[in-house]
């Protein structure tokens, strides 16, 4: 019999960061004094290259420790229990090429300490949700890049996480897969706190309830996609209102990386 740990359910936000700083390497403060809260819904994490998106996601995934400030996840669950309740797709996820899709997702379910009796049905459901049921017993080495990305998404959702962290999940997906993925995001966001980093502003407009914009490790903006769009004017660069809002908010005089 497993010990059942009773999770606190009295938190206001799934994710609460106060004055959060995360150092990478020796000196670089890749997340620099960020204060934000995130609850259920789909939070789009936007920002130019090097803004600190991956570093923030890694801190949320408990892979990196905060350098200073506080980060409270799920009301302050202890680390082991917290990790059971997180789903994480890193930018580059490692896998064994000879595993089948099912074996790999099962293996990840096992690492997340899911009760054994729940594993087969949870694995099947996760594989179906990413549209890979017909490839479930194929080896990973036979899949395309987009399919592998979907396997990565399946392993991230297999434990029905309360906090789901997806670092550039749409990279490598073809347009049809991206549309299906947006529907999945919307569905997941109804009862999960989903944080998704992306460079595709259209994905944010279509599937996110909330946008978090980072630049140089700082929080530049948090609000709805409509509020982001409202920040732009016709003079700002971009193909859509939301892209023009993004450009407007990043157009500070001291921002480097103007390329
Ligand atoms: N291990 C490391 N050592 C030194 N600097 C690092 C390290 N990892 C990241 N950085 C730096 O920290 C900053 C933030 O990087 P991060 O990967 O979090 O940005 P990002 O917003 O995810 O970028 P991208 O959109 O290019 O993926 C960058 O300037 C990066 O060069």
TrEMBL record:
Which Pfam family is one of this chain's hits? ABC_tran
CDD domains (UniProt xref): ABC_drug_resistance_like (cd03264)
Superkingdom to which the source organism belongs: Bacteria
- The answer to whether UniProt assigns keyword S-adenosyl-L-methionine to this entry is no
PROSITE patterns per the record? ABC_TRANSPORTER_1, ABC_TRANSPORTER_2
Q: Which residue range or ranges hold the ABC transporter domain?
A: 15-241
What protein is this chain from?
A: ABC transporter ATP-binding protein
Keyword Nucleotide-binding: yes or no?
yes
For this UniProt record, give its keywords in alphabetical order, as a comma-separated list. ATP-binding, Nucleotide-binding, Transport
Instruction: State one molecular function term (GO).
Output: ATP binding
InterPro entries given for it? AAA+_ATPase, ABC_transporter-like_ATP-bd, ABC_transporter-like_CS, P-loop_NTPase
Q: Which family does it belong to?
A: Belongs to the ABC transporter superfamily.
């Amino acid at each position: 019999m497993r010990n059942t740990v009773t999770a606190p359910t009295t938190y206001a936000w799934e994710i609460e960061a106060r004055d959060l700083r995360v150092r990478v390497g020796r000196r670089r403060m890749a997340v620099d004094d960020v204060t934000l809260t995130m609850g259920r819904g789909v939070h789009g994490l936007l920002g130019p290259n090097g803004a600190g998106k991956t570093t923030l996601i890694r801190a949320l995934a408990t892979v990196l420790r905060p350098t200073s400030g506080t980060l409270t996840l799920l009301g302050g669950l202890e680390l082991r229990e917290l990790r059971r309740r997180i789903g994480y797709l890193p930018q580059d996820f490692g896998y064994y090429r000879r595993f089948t899709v099912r074996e790999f997702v099962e293996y990840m379910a096992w690492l997340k300490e899911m009760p054994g009796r729940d594993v087969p049905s949870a694995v099947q459901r996760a594989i179906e949700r990413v549209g890979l049921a017909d490839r479930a017993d194929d080896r990973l080495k036979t899949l395309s890049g987009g399919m592998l990305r979907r396997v990565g998404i399946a392993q991230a959702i297999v434990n029905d996480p309360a906090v789901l962290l997806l670092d550039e999940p749409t990279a490598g997906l073809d347009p049809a897969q991206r549309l299906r993925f947006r529907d999945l995001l919307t569905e997941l966001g109804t009862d999960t706190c989903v944080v998704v980093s992306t460079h595709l502003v259209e994905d944010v407009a279509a599937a996110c309830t909330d946008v978090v914009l980072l630049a140089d490790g700082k929080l530049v903006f948090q609000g709805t996609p409509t509020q982001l769009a409202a920040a732009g004017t016709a003079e700002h660069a971009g193909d859509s209102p939301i892209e023009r809002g993004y450009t407007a908010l990043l157009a500070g005089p001291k921002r480097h990386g103007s390329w």
